[in-house]
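Input/output pair, single chain:
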Amino acid sequence: MTVSINTEQLLAAYEWVSAAEASGLDGEAYVDRRTGAIHWAGEGVDEELPADIDDDSLYVGVPRKSEFDLGRSLALRFVEEHLPEHREAVYGFFRKRGAYASFKSLLARAGQLEAWHEYEDAATENALRDWCAVNGFELRA
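Output:
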């Protein structure tokens, strides 16, 4: 039996655990394999986790952006498809700190920032759909 998960709730949990990882903060979220409910843990979260949260047969951790390869490599794929004339500049950005700020500045100058956000959102939703399928979940609106 496939268990349904609310798309917006899963996306919010995904963004939260990804942001926590990027900033070095404590932040986890788990999906109940039986109900699709999402449980949150970390600094500033008052929810008490179920006692059996460590049972992988009952709960699965919400993945982070780094697990889906949706960072640097996604940005480089976008450039290859939409701005190939800026390929070398963008590759250069990702060899240094502050790459995303430089990348987004270039996108804004090229009028491609909205296209990038749509591309990134689609890639994220596809990755989450694949993750759901592997774990016996189905995204619902």
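The beta strands are 3-6, 27-32, 38-42, 59-61, 137-140. Residues 17 and 23 are 10 Å apart (CA to CA).
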